[in-house]
Design goal:
- This protein is α+β, with helices and mostly antiparallel strands and about 475 residues long.
- The protein is built from 14 helices and ten strands.
- A five-stranded mixed sheet has the order 5-6-2-1-8. A five-stranded antiparallel sheet has the order 4-3-7-10-9.
- A hairpin with a 2-residue loop joins strand 1 and strand 2.
- Helix 7 packs antiparallel against helix 11, helix 7 runs parallel beside helix 13 and helix 8 packs across helix 12.
- The longest helix has about 40 residues.
- The radius of gyration is 28 Å and the shape is globular.
Length: about 475
């Protein structure tokens, strides 16, 4: 049994770093790309009032703020803020459908609205807009049904929430809660999946206590990063420092290398694909170095490309919609890679069985032949690099945009390059470790594990491709 201790230890390490199934990279509902919306429906005897709040994360807020700042002086003055609030609240009101009984009502913004830019990651701000919308109706004298539908931001990713309460009216029935699970988009639950509620059906009747003063449209003007779940980390906070010294730049570069390495080893499919593919396809250290470097280059290109979309053509192609498309493409490539590798493994196993049936043939190591008969073509390795690197890290994108917004574009590009170096080193290490673990098992060709490893690797990549494709497709 002792002779198996070392191989199993190495295999366990490779599994935990390279072959472990991936988890979603953005488990919290507040990713950097999200637009989150809350609609608080307040039923009154003669009107439906909507406490409407929009909370944009760093990247859509960056884009929106550039459109608000009409004189391009880098700040939003009261005139620009007022013009934006008026236009945006009117647009949001048009996106709501409110019905009382059989009558469709037209919501209109009142003079109570608020716009703020709470701090976000990397020196970027988020955006919080609160609008008070009111749809007047004839005074209700009996039980009535009420419908509410929110058609704003139909393609945006994020938290969507609706609540309903009575104000001089009693809700007899409602398919939405009275209390906000996110405290009106100020404290998102950490242990719940993002809500996606865009409509409500209510039944109300006259009577009940009056609510008195309604909540302020903007809610809390500047929730803490801890409450928002948007702590950008040490690197992002350093980018936003007012004074940048050579020593600080050197420290940021070192941190960026470390962050890139941690990103490669954290939840994500790049390392899993590389480890599983190299083991299943019988790759070499040269392949591990080449693929790790290629994934790093591809990731850098994806960050720069998405950054250009945000800075230049965001009104034509919204980057938050590009991200899930890239996720689907990455998943499909992984699915094709895994399927091709699995077919190759099956063919290799078939040849091995044929060799056993013909004992007059020249004897050789069938198990090792099966492991080494791999589709390690340039096309396959390039596809592996695309699948593992085409989905950019939101944190890297935030660092780039923050640097550009502060006039530190060269610093941002330098940090992205350092991030990619750390990413490449970690991925190469994962590939080499996975290959060493596979070699230890293949030295015992009669072992069931040794015979099953190529198939298991191919099946894992295929399953991963299915999972990534399905998960990203739900966000389209």
């Amino acid at each position: 049994m002792r002779r198996w201790t070392r191989p199993l230890a190495v295999v366990a390490a490779a599994a935990s770093i390279g072959l472990w199934p991936s988890a979603p990279a953005e488990a919290h509902p507040l990713g950097n790309f999200t637009i989150n919306v809350y609609g608080g429906v307040i039923v009154q005897p003669d009107a439906i009032v909507v406490d409407y709040i929009v909370d944009m994360a760093e990247i859509p807020a960056f884009r929106e703020r550039r459109s608000i700042d009409r004189n391009l002086d880098g700040r939003v003055d009261e005139g620009e803020s007022g013009a934006y609030r008026e236009a945006m609240c009117a647009s949001l009101a048009d996106g709501l459908a409110v019905r009382v009984g059989g009558t469709r009502l037209t919501p209109e913004p009142t003079d109570a609205d608020a716009l703020s830019f709470p701090p976000g990651a990397g020196g970027l701000s988020t955006l919080r807009l609160g609008c008070r919308l009111r749809a007047a109706s004839e005074r209700v004298v009996g039980e009535v049904t009420i419908g509410y539908t929110d058609r704003n931001f139909p393609d945006a990713l994020g938290w969507r929430e609706v609540t309903a309460v009575g104000d001089g009216m009693t809700l007899v029935d409602a398919d939405v809660p009275q209390a906000s699970a996110s405290a009106r988009l100020t404290a998102y639950p950490q242990d719940e999946l993002p809500l996606d509620v865009r409509r409500a059906e209510l039944t109300a009747e006259p009577g009940g206590p009056r609510r008195g003063s309604l909540p302020s449209p903007g809610g809390i003007a500047g929730p803490t990063d801890e409450a928002r779940g948007r702590d950008g980390g040490l690197l992002e906070s350093l980018v936003g420092r007012e004074e940048i010294t050579p020593a600080l730049v050197a420290a940021m570069i070192a941190i960026a290398v470390g962050v890139g390495a941690v990103h490669a080893l954290g939840p994500g499919h790049g390392k899993t694909l590389i480890g599983a593919y190299l083991v299943g396809a019988g790759g070499s250290i040269r392949h591990a170095v080449g693929v790790g470097a290629a994934v790093s280059v591809m990731h850098t290109a994806s960050v720069l490309t998405l950054g250009l979309l945000v800075l230049m053509v965001e009104r034509v192609v919204a980057p938050e919609r590009v991200y899930p498309v890239l996720g689907v493409a990455s998943g499909v490539i992984a699915l094709v890679l895994g399927s091709s590798l699995l077919v190759s493994r099956i063919h290799a196993a078939t040849h091995e069985r044929d060799g056993r049936r013909h004992p007059h043939a020249r004897p050789h190591d069938h198990a090792r032949d099966a492991a080494n008969a791999s589709p390690l073509s340039r096309r396959g390795l390039l596809a592996l690099a695309f699948s593992g690197g085409m989905l950019p890290s939101p944190s890297a994108l935030v660092v780039l945009l923050a640097s550009v917004s502060l006039g530190r574009t060269v610093l941002g590009l330098t940090l992205i390059a350092a991030f990619s170096v750390g990413l490449a080193v970690a991925l190469i290490g994962v590939g080499i470790l996975s290959l060493r673990a596979g070699d230890l098992l293949l030295r015992r060709p009669t072992s069931f594990v040794a015979r099953s490893l190529p198939f298991a690797s191919a099946a894992a990549i295929t399953a991963m491709g299915v999972f990534l494709t399905a998960r990203s497709a739900t966000q389209l």
